[in-house]
Amino acid sequence: MSDLSAFPITRKWPARHPERLQLYSLPTPNGVKASIMLEETGLPYEVHLVDFGNNDQTSPEFMSLNPNNKIPAILDPDGPGGKPLALWESGAILLYLADKTGRLIPKDPAARYETIQWLMFQMGGIGPMFGQLGFFNKFAGKDYEDKRPRDRYVAESKRLLGVVEGRLADRDWIMGSEFTIADIAVFPWIRNLVGFYEAGELVGFEDFPRVARTLEMFKARPAVERGLNIPSRG
Ligand SMILES: N[C@@H](CCC(=O)N[C@@H](CS)C(=O)NCC(=O)O)C(=O)O
Predict the structure, then answer these.
(1) Which residue ranges form the domains of the chain, and what is each CATH number?
(2) What is the mean pLDDT of the segment spanning 33-50?
(3) Tell me: the pLDDT tens digits for 101-156?
(4) CA of 83 to the centre of ligand 1 (A)
(5) How many angstroms is it from 71 CA to the middle of ligand 1?
(6) Mind listing the pLDDT tens digit for each residue in 45-59?
(7) 57 lines ligand 1 (CB under 6 A)
(8) What atom in ligand 1 is closest to the CA of residue 29?
(9) Which of 65, 117, 190, 228 qualifies as a FRET site for 181, CA 20 to 30 Å off?
């Protein structure tokens, strides 16, 4: 029997199945990367809702696992060497789960690094920039009279979409015919940009037909469809 009692997070979110990987999340563009990956790989897991309405992410129990108070986070009872492993940052989680299962990352070393490169491109570019655009277009920042901050993020988001559009010129997925963790990182953010953030018109999304095509292929995957709603908001 796996013993996770040394991890204070399990006091707030008890593990009913401590032998399974524990996921602490919410279905945001970063959160769904972990749930989609788990659904794609079929690894058994138990999910726990981190409710931002209650500021669960800043609770001492959550922060004992992730001092950066952000979802997603995982606790794998069967980590390297058979010991529990706690992990946060969605990019690190994707890479860890890809290595653990041998899935969704190419085996060829050069292609593997290229996949990691696109993963980092999402983590350092698409995520932070689209997130700022969401703030200035949909949330508190939309009332600012000075539109220069918003326009800065619109221009940068367009540029980033152009990079993805170019990459998809001769391929279905970011790494070619193979669906990888790079796609799992990038496409929830593009979906969010044109969906929840309502910024499709602002960034001229119709200028990126290949991105739009791959986004539709992404959403049509059964594991993606499931992962996008995990955990359910109750
Ligand atoms: N770089 C982090 C970003 C995670 C992140 O920003 N998570 C947001 C939800 S999408 C969050 O937990 N926000 C809660 C807060 O800031 O209090 C990752 O990719 O895991």
Answers:
(1) 9-103 (3.40.30.10), 109-222 (1.20.1050.10)
(2) 98
(3) 999 999 999 999 999 999 999 999 999 999 999 999 999 999 999 999 999 999 99
(4) 26
(5) 5
(6) 999 999 999 999 999
(7) yes
(8) 10
(9) 65
